[in-house]
Write a structure and sequence with these properties.
Undecaprenyl pyrophosphate synthetase, globular, binds 3-methylbut-3-enyl trihydrogen diphosphate, 6 strands, binds magnesium ion, six-stranded parallel β-sheet, about 45% helix, alpha/beta, about 250 residues, 8 helices
Length: about 250
Amino acid sequence: MEGIKLNKDCIPKHVAIIMDGNGRWAKEKGEMRIFGHTNGVESVREALTAAGEIGVEFLTLYAFSTENWSRPKEEIDALMDLLVHSISSEIKELNDKGVKLQTIGNIKNLPKSCQKALLNAIDETKHNNKVTLILALSYSSRSEIVSAFKEMIKDIDSKKINSDEINEDIISSYLSTANYPDPELLIRTSGENRVSNFLMWQLAYTELYFTSTLWPDFKKEHFYKAIEDYQSRERRFGKISEQILGND
Ligand code: IPE
Ligand code: IPE
Ligand code: MG
């Protein structure tokens, strides 16, 4: 990518993206909001291709939040239709790129047609191992944490685990992201500087990257730029700079 230099030894394993700004992108063009969502699908392809090219192993995309159920019914219906069609028509490309599809969130709340398309795509791509694409659908971090609490309490009651054993790893293992490492980098498009109920436990030490680019305008070079910015950061995890640089 022109002008962007990436250090191959410092590629994040897991990148998460809050894909925001579709509605505003459409509005700027005098179009309906769904036009923005439709054009956002191409940006998903771009991010996924870019991730695969540089060796990012996990890409989590926030596609629909629990709170998004409060949007007008027409928009929700159109988004669900778009999801079914995109998932079904992308299976070949996912397989060509070695992408394994997974989901987090309350999938049971999605329309049956969506659930079916997702289960089918998950099954059709389950043997791929280059990139794991995790779609967050009907997802909210707080409700994920509530579910984890409930499961944990059940397991304590049935003596499967002992409350004295509970530690950070055990809590992580009850979350829907149990099989994935925490993201090293979170990207949010559209100029909003908030987390909007996304991966709140998992983001504890994630680097945050906010860009004013609206999601449908987000292309491979924007993804690489975010990685380049990530690589310029010093991740101290509470230590001091000299310890990280090995001078102390
Ligand atoms: C992100 O774009 C997509 C979803 C939340 C489904 P928005 O639809 O939130 O677009 P803006 O933020 O209104 O521009
Ligand atoms: C966050 O975007 C959710 C997704 C990108 C799916 P929103 O547009 O729903 O977030 P808020 O409401 O502006 O915080
Ligand atoms: Mg938004």
